[in-house]
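Notebook, bench 3.
Goal today: get a predicted structure for peptidylprolyl isomerase from Knipowitschia caucasica so we can plan the truncation constructs. The sequence was checked against the plasmid map this morning, with no discrepancies at the termini. Length recorded as 190 residues. Pasting the sequence as submitted so the record is complete.
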Amino acid sequence: MPLLCGRSCVLLLAALCSVSLCEEDTGDTHELHVDTLVKPEICELLSAMGDTLHIHYTGKLMDGKVVDTSLSREPLVVELGKRTVIAGLEQSLVGVCAGQKIKATIPAHLAYGKKGYPPTIPGDAVLEFEVEVISLSPQTQWQKMVNHVFPLVCLLLVPTLLGLVGLYLYTKANAQGQKKKNKEKKSKKK
């Protein structure tokens, strides 16, 4: 009986230890976390992919060291979906409105990854961005066409162009082969 209790106690202790090891830390550095600091009373339009935002931002390391800020420059223009900023910042800007201020905690894999951005940002650095959305311009019909239709047209043109190049090369090769045959016929006649 004591042996059975000993095994059960060991199994119970092992289970409790594994549960405590598997518990998530509330400061999980593997997921994007966005907090709204200020939201205007009237928010008529929320940002979506393709929209253009003018933002001011301050990017920091988790120890508080500022790595970049736009406060001393013109606002940064970001067209969502164009990957002009790090992935985590772009994702945090979807669903915001003009006048909104957010704080985004961006994990390394959505920022600069294992390599970092030496010498300013070390590898595997979690970043914190405070962002103010100055203005928001929805995607125009022209932008929609360029962003959605144009890539499809290009995708369809590639096989067509490859087919035309192949046809040209085939025709050229046949023409050269025909010239060779004609030269051989002329040389046999002589």
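Residues 141-189 form the longest helix (49 residues). DSSP finds three helices and six strands in the chain.
Flagging this for group meeting.
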